[in-house]
Design goal:
By secondary structure, the chain is α+β, with helices and mostly antiparallel strands. The protein folds into 2 domains: 253 residues, no CATH class; 129 residues, no CATH class. Helices cover 41% and strands 12% of the residues. It is found in: Cell membrane. Keywords: Cell membrane, Glycoprotein, Membrane, Receptor, Transmembrane, Transmembrane helix.
């Protein structure tokens, strides 16, 4: 099963000049510090916390730092303004987004087969059994109560409830399909409120979804050469998708504003490919690195955002949720203060600065991880059971009112 990307978490960092914990990658400490200084300069708008997290449907597969050691490690980046907002899309688009088509129809078909079996058993088998059997009587009463529908008649003397049963088994299928679909749609539409906004904003998570996303992929000649010469078919496919840009236009590639004339050469939605940790992490760049942290068969979601970004609180919440569930145990973080270069800050001073706990500016939900991994089939079955119990309770209430 392919890895399902979650997202990288941008944490809210305390006022510590610079701190590195559990440095476990190829560069030395001094090289790392020099790299941070060269990358961010004396910018005042960035406070960064970076992690790379990938979780399968059943267990977490990988947690490590985003930066490469010495090898060419590429990312795909998109501008933050190209990301859809959390509320974009219609109700049914949000409902069925990310739901495998084959699995969905398989669950629906299996559910209706079970319903048909229950109806057949209640109408054919149970009637042939002895009526003295309490179990048979109970099953018969249960199935009849589940599959009967109620109509409401408004009259001068009040409201009257009447019970009816579909004459056709096909009619029963249609009615139950719409009932369960509506209930399931309502429940499934509530799921985004339990997830971070970033989950819904991933424009692509693997090669197939990238090819369907409509993004125009651009990159420098070196990226095209390395990807094209790789033995990995995924990297070769991405090399074929790249529109190579000249070195003279690399300013736009680094992160130009949307109003620059050069942008007219590409589609409205543009993705960039480059070595991780360099061109995209510029202080003047308003870019979120997203969706692919290294171009191989395993795709991992990656986010990078600025301190003032409206997405930042969501990343903070997600980090805390992952931490509460024990999924983040060895998270490498870095913090950059606005006057680090002017103050002549040294790494020895940074070592004495302890990283404090992350502080959330939004409500932390413990449901974030558990609800994310639930399949649509589970919700379909849960909705069916919920509707069944609801109909059974209504029948008992009406029966009590009639006999009172």
């Amino acid at each position: 099963m392919a890895l399902q990307p979650v997202q990288v978490v941008i944490g809210q960092l305390r006022k510590c000049n610079f701190a590195v914990e559990d440095l476990k990658w190829g560069l030395s400490t001094d090289d790392f510090y020099a790299f941070i200084q060269a990358t961010f300069g004396d910018n005042t708008n960035n406070a960064i916390g970076i992690a790379r997290i990938a979780i399968t449907m059943d267990r977490m597969r990988e947690i490590d730092f985003i930066y490469p050691s010495a090898s060419y490690h590429y990312v795909i980046a998109v501008c933050e303004k190209d990301l859809p907002s959390a509320g974009d899309g219609t109700f049914f688009i949000a409902l069925f987004a990310g739901v495998p088509v084959i699995a969905t129809f398989a669950v629906i078909a299996l559910t209706f087969v079970v319903l048909a079996g229950l109806i057949t058993y209640s109408k054919v088998v149970i009637k042939q059994l002895s009526t003295s059997s309490s179990m048979s009587s109970g099953i018969s009463a249960l199935t009849h109560s589940l599959f009967r529908l109620y109509t409401i008649a408004f009259g001068q003397d009040g409201v009257a409830f009447s019970r009816s049963t579909p004459r056709s088994l096909y009619g029963l299928y249609i009615v139950w399909f719409f009932m369960v679909t509506v209930v399931g749609a309502v429940i499934y539409s509530l799921l985004p409120s339990y997830l971070t906004v970033s989950t819904a904003q991933l424009p692509f998570t693997d090669l197939q979804s990238f090819q369907r996303s409509g993004y125009d992929l651009v990159g420098p000649p070196l990226a095209f050469k390395i990807l094209n010469e790789s033995s990995d078919p995924v990297k070769q496919t991405l090399a074929n998708e790249i529109q190579v840009i000249p070195l003279s236009e690399e300013k736009f590639y680094d992160c130009a504003e949307r109003n620059e004339p050069l942008h007219g050469k590409y589609l409205q939605k543009t993705a960039f490919v480059n070595v991780a940790g360099f061109s995209h992490f510029s202080p003047r760049c308003q870019t979120s690195v997203i969706a692919v942290s290294h171009l191989a068969h395993i795709f991992i979601a990656t986010f990078f955002t600025t301190k003032r970004s409206h997405l930042r609180d969501n990343f903070t919440r997600e980090y805390l949720v992952l931490q509460e569930h024990g999924l983040v145990q060895h998270l490498d973080t870095l913090q950059y203060f606005n006057n680090i270069r002017k103050a002549g800050f040294t790494f020895q001073q940074a070592q004495r600065c302890q990283t404090n706990a992350f502080v959330s500016t939004s409500t932390v939900s413990r449901k974030s991880i558990g609800w994310r991994t639930l399949a649509f089939g589970f919700w379909f079955c849960a909705a069916s059971a919920g509707v069944s119990v609801y109909v059974l309770v209504i029948e008992r209430m009406v029966y009590s009112l009639r006999n009172s």
